[in-house]
Amino acid sequence: MLSLSKHEDEEPAMSPAPQFQSEFLRTFAARGAYYQCSADADLDALMGRERVTGYIGFDATAPSLHVGHALQIMTLRRMQQAGHRPIVLIGGGTTKVGDPSFRNEARPLLGDEQIDANKAAIRKTFERFVTFGDGPSDAIMVDNADWLDRLEYIPFLREIGRHFSINRMLAMESVKAKVENDLPFSFLEFNYSIMQAYDFVELYRRYGCRLQSSGSDQWGNIVSGIELGRRVENQQFFALTTPLLTTSSGAKMGKTAAGAVWLNPDMCSPYDYWQFWRNTEDGDVGRFLRLFTEISEDEIARLEKLQGAELNDAKKVLANAATALAHGEDAARAAGETARRAFEEGVMAEGLPTITATLPDGILNLAVAAGLAASNSEARKLIANNGLKLNDAPVSDPRLTVDASALNGDGVLKLSSGKKKHVLVKPA
């Protein structure tokens, strides 16, 4: 059975980054992405002498990834830039099970049609960050449904399941938290860790993959794959994790009042994406420049020394660079210009996010529909704090009904949250 040390399955504490010699690990650590590695020296030596194939898995639970995935995507990009081969593993199979790690509720079960649609949309995101092809360091995208859907239950239990100790699986932090708090935890979800471990072995058999990277919350699952690979393939596999990011104020990275910051432009416009980075907290600017852009260290060192109003220039650099990676240079320039016109000139600039609404409608409903508040109660608080504007005029009455008389000469109205978020509303 899998034999893990007492705390090997738990999320580890962040380790000081070693002095790496290989290009990828040296850059990875220098940019602040390093959290933990299962065998630093061995992986460093391996990546210094040969091309390594490594993967990161992404379940297809939505038609887009979000900013919370951006660090993992950048990891694959930097891996490829250093001459190694990245694998984007789409969890078409594991999505049907759902990762229970550190979740209070089970993920909703999706049908094959929805999963396939999500996979197709997610691939478009990756095409901006990595180069797919048949070359030695070209990225490949694979779907674990290709092997998980074809497993025969009894042979799988005999070949793979026998290596897993129920006692050890119950002791994993992600599982123990559910059991101790009497949270729902189905047998279906219980199999997720075994499937993820098997993915690692299968990718080694098919592509010679020996490295798995992810956020530090996946440490236990990755280590299970490492040990399974040692047992069934007599091969050393490696784990490399990134920190779980929070902002300087302690908020979860990538979350806003309106919800997740999606990478798909159909779910989050390039303008809104640009604004997310532009609104970075002062204390995070240097860190986010290192993690989420390819701006040189010398330039980052200069930018993070800026103070006061000048620091806004650094935030614009961050917004431009991050948006260019996700949506292209043209989209980044357009978003920046739209923001400049909206904020500096106070005009209803073309390119602002636009929604359609049936008028008349209450101001609270419109604020929620525009993504300026997550609920009517939040919209009320926004109004109470003088944070909501209609056509640049503060809204004071949460009972306000907005009708066609509020439309400007272009037939739209502008809703604003503070000075930074603007949305145009067109009548249906």
If you had to describe this structure to a student in words, what would you say it looks like?
Helix content is 42%, strand content 14%. With 428 residues, it is an alpha/beta fold. The chain has three domains: 23-242, 3-Layer(aba) Sandwich (Rossmann fold); 269-345, Tyrosyl-Transfer RNA Synthetase (Orthogonal Bundle), CATH 1.10.240.10; 354-427, RNA-binding S4 domain (Structural Genomics Hypothetical 15.5 Kd Protein In mrcA-pckA Intergenic Region, Chain A, Roll), CATH 3.10.290. Helix 12 (270-278) runs antiparallel to helix 15 (311-327) and helix 13 runs antiparallel to helix 14 (297-303). The protein is globular and about 75 Å long.
Q: Could you give a short description of this structure?
A:
By secondary structure, the chain is α/β, with parallel strands linked by helices. The chain has helices at 23-30, 40-49, 70-81, 112-126, 145-148, 153-159, 166-171, 173-180, 187-190, 192-207, 219-233, 270-278, 285-292, 297-303, 311-327, 329-345, 363-369, 376-384, and strands at residues 36-37, 53-59, 85-91, 140-143, 211-215, 238-242, 255-256, 259-260, 354-357, 361-362, 388-390, 393-394, 401-402, 413-417, 421-427. The protein has a 6-stranded mixed sheet, sandwiched between helices.
